[in-house]
Recover the amino acids of this structure.
């Protein structure tokens, strides 16, 4: 039976509307899952029922994580969505408590890190300037830098390599790592690019974007595959 994957919604502040990048949905479907987009809701009963009916959860990209969640004052370029933060915090906690598989992408790694006790660089240009390209122009399925993969990590077991060329589109990143998370990959300039939670059956999070590249890049497809397989068990 195909597992059902709950996908966190994207929010357009200007249009006051939910939307979704097809790569998130199609990447899950290509791997054998059934993706459904969650409503943007803070109603705990609604979220509890949705979490119960899903076999796994994808935490997508989008707005910056609110600095209130890691006790910092915001700098001018930070744009967050309070309702999304509130909703995803409930979903993440319930999913971890039920030990259901979780995959985070871009904002997903940042949000998971913060919710589990870590902090973020609010803006890399200001707080971690580097010659490594972390905010590429389209097309977004083209790799722009490398990451080094820890050989004792499940990501190494998944892709069978200690380096990957990845795409990159973000201005925030993990600063202080959550004590609940372990590093799976780092960028050439030392940023955390992938993490996992050892205590979970499957909790991975990545800073790059396999949803843009899974059709042309075997390793991006493998990440969706291993996530959906975990949700089948």
């Amino acid at each position: 039976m195909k597992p059902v994957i709950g996908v966190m919604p994207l929010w357009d502040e200007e249009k006051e509307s939910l939307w979704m990048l097809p790569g998130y949905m199609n990447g899950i479907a290509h791997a054998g899952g059934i993706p459904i987009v969650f409503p943007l809701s803070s109603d705990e009963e609604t979220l509890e029922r949705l979490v119960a009916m899903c076999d796994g959860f994808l935490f997508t990209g989008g707005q910056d994580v609110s600095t209130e969640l890691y006790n910092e004052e915001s700098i001018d370029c930070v744009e967050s969505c309070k309702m999304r933060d509130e909703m995803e915090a409930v979903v993440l906690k319930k999913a971890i408590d039920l030990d259901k598989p979780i995959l985070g992408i871009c904002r997903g790694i940042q949000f998971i890190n913060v919710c589990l006790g870590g902090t973020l660089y609010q803006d890399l240009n200001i707080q971690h300037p580097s010659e490594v390209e972390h905010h590429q122009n389209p097309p977004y399925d083209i790799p722009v830098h490398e990451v080094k993969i820890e050989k004792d990590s499940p990501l190494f077991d998944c892709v069978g390599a200690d380096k990957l060329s990845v795409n990159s589109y973000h201005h925030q990143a993990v600063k202080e790592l959550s004590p609940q998370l372990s590093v799976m990959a780092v960028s050439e300039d030392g940023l955390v690019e992938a993490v996992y939670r050892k205590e979970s059956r499957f909790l991975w999070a990545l800073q790059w974007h396999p949803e843009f590249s899974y059709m042309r890049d075997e390793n991006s497809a493998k990440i969706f595959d291993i996530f959906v397989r975990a949700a089948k068990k």
User: Anything to note?
Assistant: Residues 82-97 form the longest helix (16 residues). The radius of gyration is 16 Å. The CA atoms of residues 11 and 17 lie 6 Å apart.
